[in-house]
UniProtKB/TrEMBL annotation:
G-protein coupled receptors family 1 profile domain residues: 373-648
Name of the protein this chain belongs to: AGRG7 protein
An example molecular function term from Gene Ontology annotations: G protein-coupled receptor activity
Record-annotated G-protein coupled receptors family 2 profile domain positions: 359-652
Annotated GO CC locations: membrane
InterPro entries: ADGR_G7, GAIN_B, GAIN_dom_sf, GPCR_2-like_7TM, GPCR_2_secretin-like, GPCR_Rhodpsn_7TM, GPR128_7tmB2, GPR128_GAIN_subdom_A
Recorded topology in the membrane: Multi-pass membrane protein
Record-annotated GAIN-B domain positions: 176-353
GO biological process, one term: cell surface receptor signaling pathway
Length: 716
């Protein structure tokens, strides 16, 4: 059963001011979100071209339901509302409603808008008995939730430090008397009784009847340990040592879904990090310690929680600190902090992409077999060069060598050694009852504004970048050689052909890598060039979005795409003009001819790296399709070295002959294959090309060997 998770487009007629009725139109709205009306304020008003109303899509009894629209006063803006809220006789609900509407499009909010809205929210929350005014309270909380959806770069200005601190402190005080939940922020309160020895706050997200429900908040008394329910997203346990002499005490909690209001000068948000912040406040009692447990949920099983750290917000310096906090890892991410006053605790946990085990096994097995195959191919090409006479070694050996070095570095060094060392304290996901560890409660280096240099990982990234680019470059050069040998056979090869190819094959990748390093790498800023966890090119920005400013796109994906396009064009030309060209005079067995052509086609496809195009198909958003192409990509490309060995070494008659001498059981009958060729004669008298009426055929060792990239006249 699949439930609807949105409210359909709607139209309604409302009274926007005294005696003025207006028809409002709303697009489809997601459950739990506000939608803006298509109708705007008049251009000559203060809020010209701003949506005149918003409407909430909520769920009642499992059915999406539209709330009544909230109407904006088109003559009110942030400045006028800031003046009004300071007056004792101000209409607080109206101000709260207007500020909610003005912040309903977070992506358009500027730093000044955020500052003004936060200041107004603070003043409303400080109003006497504001928690009893549900309309104003909900509107203010919705405003704060919308602010947390604004662009994070807008929060990094120093002008927001004071107002953000004021807002978070005010939210803590407000949490003692209110119970409100919004998409990005929630507050919960409860009385503190004389009999209470502990207070447990928990937030749980759940799905029911096929749809997503908002966070369920709950406070329990006298619970002596954290719950083991993995459905619980976050828990806080207050261990209370003494209460006030009456039942007038209160506890309050605030849960933030990101850390935008807690901007740090010491730490920065890494591209692979997710963060949640929970703050607590106790009035009328003391605590010996607090314990926090996080169990974040994701929509895909392809992610695993790799590491975490817990810190608290120190209001004396307006920054995060690990002092007094320890962490522990079992099925939850846990913290224990020895703080007895109000606090805000951050759980920063790194997300590491975890590939399915079969893909991991395929990768290791495939790369291992490829390395063995590449070594065999290189040795065979070198030691049988004189025997093969007309077959050169340099082009194919260069391709195999660059591919072999890349595979060796990839299998042994792509994971950052420092990142592994840092996470050794992280225990098995299922290992429980471990003590809290204070010493290991640190954030990863990518969280620090100026992380220490890791020259080893940077060097590995540079080598991987260079040898993979060189591998693709040699596929392009082999493609060019094929074109010259098979499609322009009547013209001699350029002078110093091998020298030119060597300079291009090894030199251009070096130039690209050098330019990339010069443009991105700075002392203490290595993560502009590479990732932290993996020693490979950086691709994502701090918001986990693919960035065109990172080197992955312009120094790798773009050059590789151009090379593959060139190789595909040559591959199609050779396939049509040479391999699959029809020959009416061919008398060989048709089935035998078809199989030889297929092997020849596959040989060219493999050595030109055409199979790497499957990688682009992995970008398809459909999950099942993407997974299927992931397996196909992994199988085809991790075994590319093995495929080259089979097609260009194991199938060679020379290799078969030598193997059959050592192991007679592998002796195989030779089956000659004839490749159609045409003989041309030039008439010197007429200086024109004349095609001879007869056609000749020449025997070759194997089809793949006759068109292999190692075929080169006169040797080398």
């Amino acid at each position: 059963f699949c439930a609807v998770n949105f409210c359909e487009a709607s139209t309604c007629t409302v009274n926007i001011s005294e005696g003025i009725m207006k028809s409002l139109t709303f697009e489809r709205i997601i459950v739990g979100k506000y939608g803006n009306s298509k109708e705007k304020c008049e251009p000559d008003t203060v809020n010209g071209n701003v949506s005149i109303a918003i409407r909430m899509c909520s769920r009642e009894g499992g059915t999406p339901t539209l709330d009544s629209p909230k109407i904006l006063d088109c003559n009110e803006n942030f400045d006028s509302l800031a003046l009004q809220v300071q007056m004792e006789s101000s209409n607080v609900p109206a101000i709260a409603s207007n500020i909610q509407i003005l912040t309903s499009m977070p992506e358009q909010l500027t730093t000044q808008n955020i500052s003004a809205a936060a200041s107004i929210a603070v003043q409303i929350l400080k109003k006497p008995n504001v928690s009893e005014n549900s309309k104003a309270s909900v509107a203010v909380m919705a405003t704060v939730s919308q602010l947390l959806d604004a662009d994070e770069t807008e929060f990094k200005h120093n002008s927001l430090v004071h107002v953000a601190t004021s807002l978070t402190k005010t939210m803590e005080e407000f949490s003692l008397t209110s119970n409100i939940s919004q998409p990005n922020v929630a507050v919960q309160s409860a009385p503190l009784k004389l009999s209470s020895s502990s207070i447990l706050f928990s937030a749980q997200r759940a799905t029911a009847l096929g749809y997503y429900q908002p966070t369920k908040l709950e406070i329990q008394e006298n619970v002596h340990e954290l719950l083991d329910d993995l459905r619980t997203e976050v828990q806080i346990l207050f261990n209370i040592t003494s209460n006030s002499s009456s039942d007038n005490g209160r506890v309050g909690f605030v849960l933030y879904q990101n850390d935008k209001l807690f901007q740090s000068k010491i730490y920065q948000s890494g591209s692979s990090f997710s963060k949640q912040i929970v703050s607590g406040n106790i009035n009328g009692g003391n605590t010996s310690s607090i314990e926090i447990a996080f169990s974040p949920k994701y929509n895909t099983t392809e992610l695993q929680l790799h590491d975490h750290a817990c810190v608290f917000w120190d209001y004396t310096v307006n920054d995060w600190s690990t002092a007094g906090c320890a962490k522990r890892r079992d099925q939850f991410l846990r913290c224990r902090c020895n703080h007895t006053t109000n606090f805000a605790v951050l759980m920063a946990f790194q997300i590491k992409y975890k590939y399915a085990k079969p893909l991991e096994y395929i990768s290791y097995i495939g790369v291992g077999l490829s390395m063995a195959g590449l070594v065999i191919t290189i040795l065979f090409q070198i030691f049988t060069r004189k025997t093969r006479k007309s077959s050169v070694t340099w082009m194919l050996v260069s391709l195999c060598f660059s591919m072999l070095i890349f595979n060796i570095i990839f299998i042994s060094g792509i994971e950052n050694q420092n990142a592994r060392n840092h996470s050794r304290d992280t225990r098995s996901y299922h290992q429980q009852y471990l003590p809290y560890d204070t010493a290991s409660n640190t954030l990863l280096t990518s969280e620090i504004v100026d992380p220490p240099a890791d020259s080893w990982c940077t060097a590995v990234a540079v080598l991987l970048h260079y040898f993979l680019l060189a591998t693709f470059m040699w596929t392009a050069l082999n493609s060019a050689q094929l074109y010259l040998l098979l499609l322009r056979a009547m013209k001699p090869l350029p002078v110093h052909f091998l020298m030119i190819m060597s300079v291009i094959g090894w030199g251009i990748p070096a130039v690209v890598v050098a330019i990339t390093l010069g443009a991105t790498y700075r002392e203490g800023k290595a993560l502009n060039y590479r990732q932290e966890e993996f020693c490979w090119l950086a691709a994502l920005d701090h918001n986990q979005n693919f960035s065109v400013q990172k080197p992955m796109l312009w120094s790798f994906l773009l050059p590789v795409a151009l090379i593959l396009l060139f190789n595909i064009i040559i591959f199609i030309k050779i396939s049509v003009s040479v391999i699959w060209k029809k020959n009416k005079d061919l008398t060989r067995n048709k089935k035998d001819s078809f199989m030889k052509k297929m092997i020849g086609t596959i040989s060219i496809m493999v050595v030109l790296g055409i199979t790497w195009m499957v990688g682009y198909l992995m970008l398809i958003s459909h999950e099942e399709t993407s997974v299927a192409f992931s397996y196909l990509f992994c199988i085809l490309n991790t075994t590319q070295g093995l495929q080259i060995c089979i097609l260009y070494t194991f199938r060679s008659p020379i290799f078969k002959k030598k193997i059959s001498k050592v192991f007679p059981v592998f002796r195989m009958p030779e089956v000659p294959l004839y490749l159609h060729a045409k003989t041309y004669y030039i008439s010197k008298a007429q200086l024109q090309l004349a095609k001879h009426s007869q056609e000749t055929f020449r025997s070759t060792q194997t089809f793949s060997d006759s068109i292999s990239l190692s075929t080169f006249p006169n040797g080398s």
